Amino acid sequence: HVQDLEYSFFPLNSNYIEADLSYKLGLIPITFGKWMTHILYKKYKNYLVYHVNIGVDNNKYYINKNIKKEKSICCLFQPDKNRRLYSLLLESLKLINKEVPDLKIYLYGSKDNISLPNNFINLGLLKDKEINDLYNKCLLGICFSPTNPSRIPFEMMASGLPCIDVDYNVEQDIY
Q1: What's the CA gap between 94 and 107, in Å, rounded?
Q2: Most buried pick, 30, 38, 69, 107, via CB within 10 A?
Q3: What is the pTM of this model?
Q4: Which pLDDT tens digit goes with each residue over 38-66?
Q5: In degrees rounded to 5, what are phi and psi of residue 40?
Q6: How far, in Å, CA of 163 to CA of 66, rounded?
Q7: Pick from 74, 73, 50: which is nearest to 2 by CA?
Q8: How many other CB atoms are there within 10 angstroms of residue 155's CB atom?
Q9: How far is it, in rounded angstroms, from Cα 119 to Cα 160?
Q10: Helix extents (H) in the chain
Q11: How many CB atoms lie within 10 A of CB 55?
Q12: Could you tell me which residues are beta bridge partners of residue 76?
């Protein structure tokens, strides 16, 4: 099962090389979403690759018309995962906050207690129902994932929340 471009999680070291070489073992991969299928085909010449679509559990993520929208955005914030581009996310949010100072900015997804601007609200780790409620009350969601499309934007959209991802992938040169 291939979920991400795993070698991109590491600096250029033995972990990077081992992860990169793992795609050349001659195994028949099953990828999470179609993007990795294209990477394995183009870069590694894996001609037999299967994929599973990125799905959403609509019992957990759905539009709840009983929740009132507020002037807020929510962002997946995982500073412990470099692939989530947390420093780029924070810098982007600071710019947004400068332009729209009365916008509530909710962060969720990490138990790390990181120093944040005063009007950023770190909700920490949430349960599925709490996440769905958050998605339903916000106007926009943000989830950065340059190593493979994340399931999070699909869950946001199932809850009626438009979302933003970063337009960058670590293998854009092979297209």
Answers
A1: 13
A2: 107
A3: 0.86
A4: 888 888 887 788 999 888 999 999 999 99
A5: -65, -35
A6: 21
A7: 50
A8: 25
A9: 25
A10: 14-22, 35-44, 86-99, 128-137, 152-158
A11: 12
A12: 108
